[in-house]
């Protein structure tokens, strides 16, 4: 198990113990262990017991449980509490902003033991009289429950990609000279997926091969359904090699694109075509990248020869939006810079949290200038690689940034982001961001909607007003590449480009490994039709510096 997985187990154990009203001291010890272990860089499995015991918030009891997790993958204590807790109540603990104390009231006082029962109780206004609840709390919880139910049995693209690649590689090894490719939403790089879909170019029986990797649940003439060991749904489509292009075109989709395509090209016969490129050649159209096939009007782009040359991961020259140990990052300033350089990037923008982000050890002015001095020294050492002095400045409730002008003017660039009070109505939330965008020191708007995919809905926002304000003030919009955010949503990229805005594909890296999230950001950017010319961090280091000075 990784350190993060071990830490999460202690966090979950603390929550379920709090649900059962256990000793607060024990609960706090598990919560402290979670906070200490999740940021630990050295793998716990490689550490001696005395080294782990020396970590703040970790004692002998925690060490014993860490070893239990390493050996068995589970905790006896956790299993004990799960056995006496209804599964539906355990699910309630997974809902963000709905803590164990409130879940206990729902379970013990209201008698609700499932998400469905709780949602029904909200609809019947039964929570209003409960201790710690009220009309506003009930409505907020109702919205969270609806979102939770709609997100069940769905997966982040990032959580399936490695499994899909491993399955593809395995099948290619077993079925030599057979075309095997991603298809469906996986191939269109949809941020949220319901399954892994692959197309295999053989009509032979491949059940024996698949049964080594999947539990097969359903078999039809043209496809097989199953699940991985990790319970991920998989669909394997089959066809002849001669029909591979035809089926790849059909199974890739999307639904509206296929409908529009067939309406516009007429009654053509698309059977028995070996390659997908040949499908487009048959109707005298340029190849349309799979990522663009969720756009209805992409056919018009193709007919008018206006398809964009989509951004590639290799086009990204700099790492913008990164955190260090100065705030809540796992690695030092030097580590983040040298790692970025080793990955082939030409520059990095350091953007630790600002002073209002007390929860993330945000930088007060004295630490801002201390960090800037370190950056100056490292720039001499690492040249021609360049470190730019930035900050992720909190947007306060009134839209102002949380430093005075003397500090703001010292940065090379500023990302303005909302991190608190996410429950404003659309008008207030929009005005708050517009005010921040109009601040002359704002260079970029960070993760505009605050969403966490499959976990937290975006706050309401008038996207057009925000994008228009960015265009009027020369402010860049971030596409936050963290696969749990991917915010700005790809569907708004065309409008931003129409307004002449630049987009920056930013990893929001809180560790060296987080820099690789640029990969997922580029996939989302391609869905929105982003080109390298419209991407800020595709600029060379010299041009990026000129852009900031301008």
Task: List the keywords.
DNA polymerase, domain 1; Beta Polymerase, domain 2; alpha/beta; TIM Barrel; globular; five-stranded mixed beta sheet; 550 residues
Q: Class of the largest domain in CATH? A: Alpha Beta
Count of strand segments: 14
Overall shape: it is globular
> What is the CA–CA distance across the termini?
48 Å
Description:
43% of the residues lie in helices and 11% in strands. The protein has 550 residues and is of the alpha/beta class. It has three domains: 3-151, Orthogonal Bundle (DNA polymerase, domain 1); 156-303, Beta Polymerase, domain 2, CATH 3.30.460; 313-549, Metal-dependent hydrolases (TIM Barrel). The strands form three sheets. It has a seven-stranded parallel sheet. A five-stranded mixed sheet has the order 2-4-7-6-5, sandwiched between helices. The chain has a two-stranded antiparallel sheet with strand order 1-3. α1 packs antiparallel against α2 (24-37). The radius of gyration is 26 Å and the shape is globular. The mean pLDDT is 93.
């Amino acid at each position: 198990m990784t350190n993060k997985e071990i830490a999460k187990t202690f966090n979950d154990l603390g929550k379920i113990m709090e649900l059962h009203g256990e000793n607060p001291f024990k609960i706090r010890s598990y919560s402290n262990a979670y906070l200490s272990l999740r940021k630990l860089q050295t793998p716990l499995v490689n550490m001696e017991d005395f080294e782990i015991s020396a970590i703040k918030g970790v004692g002998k009891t925690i060490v014993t449980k860490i070893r239990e997790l390493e050996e068995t993958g589970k905790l006896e204590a956790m299993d004990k509490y799960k056995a006496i807790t209804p599964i539906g109540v355990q699910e309630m603990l997974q809902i963000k902003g709905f803590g164990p104390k409130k879940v206990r009231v729902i379970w013990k006082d209201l008698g609700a033991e499932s998400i469905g029962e709780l949602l029904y109780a909200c609809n019947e206004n039964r929570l209003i009289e409960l201790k710690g609840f009220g009309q506003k709390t009930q409505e907020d919880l109702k919205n969270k429950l609806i979102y939770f139910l709609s997100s069940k049995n769905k997966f982040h693209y990032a959580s399936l990609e490695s499994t899909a690649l491993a399955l593809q590689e395995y099948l290619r090894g077993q079925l030599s000279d057979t075309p095997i490719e991603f298809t469906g939403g996986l191939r269109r790089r949809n941020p949220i997926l319901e399954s892994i879909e692959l197309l295999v170019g053989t009509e032979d029986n491949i059940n024996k091969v698949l049964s080594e990797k999947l539990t097969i649940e359903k078999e039809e003439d043209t496809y097989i359904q199953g699940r991985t060991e990790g319970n991920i749904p998989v669909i394997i489509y089959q066809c002849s090699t001669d029909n591979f292009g035809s089926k790849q075109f059909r199974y890739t989709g999307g639904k509206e694109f296929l409908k529009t395509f067939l309406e516009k090209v007429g009654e053509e016969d698309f059977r028995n075509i070996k390659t997908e490129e040949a499908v487009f050649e048959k109707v005298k159209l340029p190849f349309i990248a799979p990522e663009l096939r969720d756009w209805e009007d992409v056919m018009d782009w193709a007919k008018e020869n206006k398809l964009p040359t989509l951004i590639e991961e290799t086009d990204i020259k700099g790492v913008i939006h990164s955190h260090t140990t100065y705030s809540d990052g796992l690695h030092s300033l030097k580590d983040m810079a040298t790692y970025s350089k080793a990955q082939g990037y030409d520059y990095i923008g350091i953007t630790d949290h600002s002073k209002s982000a007390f929860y993330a050890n945000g930088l007060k002015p004295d630490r801002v200038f201390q960090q800037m001095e370190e950056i100056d020294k490292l720039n001499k050492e690492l040249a021609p690689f360049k470190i730019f002095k930035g900050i992720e400045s909190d947007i306060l409730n009134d839209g102002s940034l949380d430093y005075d002008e003397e500090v703001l003017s010292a940065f090379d660039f500023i990302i303005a982001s909302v991190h608190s009070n996410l429950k404003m109505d659309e008008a207030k939330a929009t005005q708050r961001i517009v005010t921040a965008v109009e601040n002359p020191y704002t260079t970029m708007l960070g993760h505009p909607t605050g969403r966490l995919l499959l976990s937290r809905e975006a706050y309401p926002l008038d996207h057009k007003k925000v994008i228009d304000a960015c265009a009027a003030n020369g402010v860049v919009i971030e596409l936050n590449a963290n696969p749990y955010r991917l915010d700005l949503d790809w569907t708004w990229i065309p409008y931003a480009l129409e307004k002449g805005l630049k987009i920056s594909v930013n990893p929001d890296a809180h560790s060296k490994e987080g820099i690789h999230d640029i990969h997922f950001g580029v996939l989302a950017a391609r869905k929105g039709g982003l080109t390298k010319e419209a991407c800020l961090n595709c600029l060379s280091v010299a041009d990026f510096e000129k852009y900031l000075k301008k």
